[in-house]
Specification:
7% helix, five-stranded mixed sheet, 348 residues, 3 helices, 2 domains, Neuraminidase
């Protein structure tokens, strides 16, 4: 009788231990009954796992986008403050340990911006001519010179110009297979993106001699480009802005740009000014002022007035091009195939 009972117990144990990892993962799903779909930065996320089969739980370890955020004994509740967390979708993972092994479960939440963006105003300081054949993709001051990168296959150029006349005094053309995109000047080098070719170029900023080509760290489109005192920032037409190492051109970090609960997509030409990112939103007259640390939109500029002051043709395209002149404290704004460039002073 004792032997029979021992065999039954052993059989139960074997059955208990024979669960596949997939079956174990289903034992302890994250309890989403108290979790909202959206949170703003600074709120607290309550975490527990469900235990429908009443298993003995030893401990649970929680992760937010693969970063450990805490652990508990048994199945105690863990409250996770959502500070210094990226805006956008964040994956939640729970690893639950119990006598027969562990189970993993996952889900996700969306972190949105709690910042109320200010509506900014501006005044037009000066109006200058702009080369109407320039399909403006990137615009930036280098010393007293305005550098412009233009697009379109077979027409893309990098040019230095006199901003008061709109005339280029030095330029280089891209090979016809490249569609030029955003530019920025960092450590006496001009970095230029291309649209779909996954390729960029680096030039000597003084003479525009090409130093080298480079490939993007991942297969994305090239749109806008700018820099702070240490990194480059690249947009790809989505809500993402990537932070790049200027030497290796590898991705260091990224942000997702949100205005309240709305993702701001099609971020185009970029400019970094006094700790903030300024971004054209493609096919709109809007410029977003973005916190580069969080991705929160802090200010919005409606530049629609500028479009009423240009001479339109069937070829005239959208607002694009932001250059800040630190000597005057003013911004230079233009568009693709616009005949004018506007010097503006931004105000709250």
């Amino acid at each position: 009788m004792y032997k029979a009972l021992s065999l039954i117990a052993l059989g139960v144990l074997v059955i208990s231990c024979s669960k596949t990892q997939e079956e174990k993962n289903k034992l302890f799903p994250i309890d989403f009954s108290a979790i909202k779909g959206q949170y703003t930065a600074g709120e607290t996320l309550p975490l527990t796992v469900s235990n429908p089969e009443k298993q003995q739980i030893d401990s649970v370890v929680y992760y937010l986008s693969n970063k450990k955020v805490g652990s508990v004994k048994g199945n105690e509740k863990l409250s996770v403050p959502l500070n210094n967390v990226k805006l956008g979708y964040q994956d939640i993972k729970a690893t639950t340990y119990y006598p027969d092994g562990y189970g993993e479960s996952s889900g996700r939440i969306e972190i949105i911006s709690g910042v109320k963006a200010k509506i900014l105003s501006y005044e037009i300081v000066n109006t200058y001519p702009h080369d109407v054949t320039s399909y403006t993709q990137g615009l930036e001051f280098y010393r007293d010179t305005l550098v412009e990168g233009t697009g379109q296959y077979g027409q893309s150029v990098l040019r230095k110009e006199d901003y008061k006349t709109g005339e280029a005094y030095k330029k280089v053309s891209l090979d016809g297979k490249y569609f030029g995109e955003g530019i920025t000047i960092f450590n006496n080098k001009i970095y230029q993106l291309t649209w779909k070719e996954n390729t960029g170029f680096i030039y000597n900023a003084d003479n525009l001699n090409k130093i080298k080509d480079f490939n993007y760290a991942k297969a994305i489109q090239g749109w806008g480009l700018t820099h702070d005192d240490k990194y480059l920032y690249q947009s790809d037409g989505s809500e993402k802005i990537y932070k790049l190492d200027p030497e290796t051109l590898q991705e260091v970090d990224y942000i997702n740009v949100y205005a309240g609960d709305r993702k701001i997509k099609e971020l185009n030409e970029l400019e970094y000014v006094n700790g903030k990112l300024y971004a054209n939103v493609y096919q709109t007259n809007g410029i977003m002022v973005i916190d580069p640390a969080t991705g929160a939109v802090e200010g919005i500029l409606n530049m629609a007035e500028l479009e009423t002051k240009i001479n339109k043709t069937p070829q005239t395209n959208v607002l694009n091009g932001i250059a800040y002149n630190p000597k005057t404290g003013t911004f230079f704004i233009t568009g693709k195939l616009w005949d004018k460039m506007f010097e503006v002073r931004i105000k709250e």
